[in-house]
Write a structure and sequence with these properties.
This protein is of the alpha+beta class and 339 residues long. 40% of the residues lie in helices and 20% in strands. The strands form 2 sheets. It has a 7-stranded mixed β-sheet with strand order 1-5-6-10-9-8-7, with helices on both faces. β7 and β8 form a beta hairpin.
Amino acid sequence: MKDKLNKIVSEALSQIDGSEHLEKLNEIKVAYLGKKGELTQVLKSMKDVAAEDRPKVGQMVNEARTSIEERIEKKKKDFEKKVLEEKIKKETIDVTLPGKAPVIGHKHPNQIALEDVEDIFVGMGYQVVEGPEVEYDYYNFEALNIPANHPAKDEQDTFYITSDIVLRTQTSSVQVHEMEKGKLPIRMIAPGRVFRSDEVDATHSPSFNQIEGLVIDKNVTFADLKGTLAEFAKKMFGEDTKVRFRPHHFPFTEPSAEMDVSCFKCGGKGCRFCKGEGWIEILGCGMVHPRVLEMRDIDPDKYQGFAFGMGLERIALLKYEIDDMRLLYENDIRFLEQF
């Protein structure tokens, strides 16, 4: 029995010393110390050993097990030490190398353009206000002098949640909420998302951003509107920018106009960017309709006002010379990294 145990220990130690990886070491441990291992089989054969010899044989088996376990543990530590040394070697930091700057995100072109617009108007004494995106039909239409039968209320253009609740189609509704507070004078801009039932293409989207402006005070004239927007255009697109106003119609302003700026790409000579016209349309505007003032209990004989609205995406497209609005929403990192 002694010779058999010596042979088992000798073979086990030899295999342990010759193992090349931890997986092999585990296989050896199972082969000799497992439930069906060599030493376990010796213990099962103890019934064939004389009773007086069993304590001695049991002691030899335990000594054999201890020898194998200690060698396995030593070999395991050698493997772990080797793995740690290789890991440390790979992770060594050369402090003489230049540092790697972390990749940090930055503002979206829409946000950059919005902050530029806000800075310009805040510098003129305007307040930035917000309002709900889910709006009552009354605030989105009726309070802005848009009657029930107006084409703008057609379901093809407006997302209706119920018969009297809509996703706002314009941030002009914020003007109504601001006028309801009854605090005059008012100088405000209202940026925010709006929703219209449009097909997605290079210049349209069912969800986009609009910036609405409103001024209500005594002795406000169309000249004030023109001067304000001319100053905005110069600050936004360059000091040489010129503006022109064309008659238009909006239900909540009278008179109404659309404003163009001279093409800042060609200086008004005509190019691909302005489609050869030398001018680029950027917003709609006008004097606040007396009816809108009256509905908010503001006396149109004492107070007058002007309003304007522009698409934020249009400002961003023009400012950065982008020809497809979809680029602003596709989150293509190659595009966004340019800003």
